[in-house]
Every structure is written in structure tokens, then in C-alpha cells.
Design brief:
It contains seven helices and eleven strands. It has 219 residues and is an alpha/beta fold.
């Protein structure tokens, strides 16, 4: 059995909801690398780069990047266009090694191949409301599994996942077989979902301009 030493920092964070004024401690996993997945086609936004769509004055990817920075060590961005714009955030940008937008798994593989972290926490750029304890809960629930992912009590969110780098070879083989389904791959690893019951709003994806407009109104 492999044992991984994680350096942890405690951060004192206040909840945003006014009904929950108590302070909490968030575990920062400094040896986990966070990954913002921003390499998609944006087909449901008319082909625009979804990660750069503005939400309350900030690009969508920046909301996720900022949230991950509080929870993990390094953070990188998986992107396939507008690379210079993403690089202005100060985070390294990694392109897919496979061509023609092969989906989230291709982005995951490229990051695993081009980083040295044992563990990587992936999160899509269109989920700007991820909880502040996402990383610590996925980590603590992993047991001996090489992968954990979010279930909000209603459905799985396989693209919000913590993966060990030992999955590099099986992921390569899976993609080369022609498969692209994230959920099917994760199930094949022997990983498991982690319950975030009652937090469905934290994992809502912004897929269309109409949905983006509704989120603007929330802000």
C-alpha cells in the first residue's frame, strides 16, 4: 500500500452565508495540484471560450482558480485556445496532447503527463461556486482508491474529481480505445463518489448564455 505525506495548512475562513457566521477551518492540501478544466469547445455558448465568459466582472475560470488556490498547492489551467489570456492569470497553462477537443479526459491526461504531483484535483471552469472544503473532503474520503469524485445527492459530477497519477497509463489506454466517457473511466479505476448531499448548487454548470445571465442576476 502506498502512503502519501500531505503537508497541510489551516486557513481561517468565514462563511459567506449570513445565517452561518461561525468561523471554520479549511484544510489546504499543499501537495495536491488543482486543475481548472477550460479546454472545451463551448458549443452550447455558440463556440465561444466558456472559461473567458464574464461573471460579475471576472472570467468564469478565474472564479474556479481563486477557489482552488485556497484549497491546494499549485494550480494549473487546462486550455486549448486563447492561451496568452489564460497565462495572464499567473497559472501555468497546459494544452491537450490529443488534437481536436477530445473532451475532459484528454485535458486530465495532458496535465497528469506534464506535472509531477501525485494527486490532482480537477474542476471544470463553469462551476464557479465550488465549496471551500472540496479538496479536503475528496482527500479524506479516498481510503485506498486512486480516484474520488463528487455526488451532490442527486447525481454524480465526474469532472470534479481527485485523481492519482498512477491512472496515467489506464487513462491513456482508455482514450486510445476511442472511449471518452468520464464516468465510465472513473468507475473502471475502482474509485468512488463522495457525498456532498444538499450542495447541488455548488456544482451547477453554466452551459449557456441564458444560464450565465441568471447567475449575473444572483450576483
Amino acid at each position: 500500500m502506498l502512503v502519501f505525506l500531505i503537508t497541510c495548512e489551516r486557513q481561517h475562513v468565514s462563511r459567506l452565508k449570513p445565517t452561518l457566521k461561525e468561523a471554520i477551518f479549511v484544510q489546504r492540501l499543499t501537495e495536491v495540484t488543482g486543475v481548472v478544466l477550460a479546454g472545451g469547445r463551448g458549443s452550447r455558448m455558440g463556440g465561444s471560450d466558456k472559461g473567458l465568459a464574464l461573471l460579475n466582472g471576472q472570467p468564469l475560470f478565474q472564479h474556479v482558480l481563486n477557489a482552488l488556490k485556497l484549497q491546494v498547492g499549485d494550480v494549473v489551467i487546462s486550455a486549448n485556445r486563447n492561451l496568452e489570456i489564460y497565462q495572464r492569470s499567473g497559472a501555468p497553462v497546459i494544452q491537450d496532447s490529443m488534437s481536436d477537443y477530445q473532451g475532459p479526459l484528454a485535458g486530465m491526461l495532458a496535465v497528469i503527463e506534464q506535472t509531477e504531483s501525485e494527486w490532482l484535483l480537477f474542476c471544470p471552469c463553469d462551476t464557479p461556486n465550488i465549496p471551500e472544503d472540496l479538496a479536503s473532503r475528496l482527500w479524506q474520503a479516498r481510503e485506498n482508491a486512486p480516484a474520488t469524485w463528487v455526488n451532490d445527492g442527486q447525481r454524480d459530477h465526474p469532472s470534479v474529481a481527485l485523481l492519482h497519477r498512477s491512472l496515467c497509463l489506464p487513462l491513456t489506454e482508455y482514450l486510445h480505445s476511442g472511449e471518452r466517457r468520464v464516468m465510465q473511466f472513473l468507475l473502471s479505476t475502482g474509485g468512488h463518489a463522495v457525498s456532498f448531499d444538499g450542495q447541488a448548487d455548488c456544482f451547477t454548470n453554466i452551459n449557456t448564455l441564458e444560464e450565465l445571465s441568471r447567475w449575473q442576476k444572483k450576483g
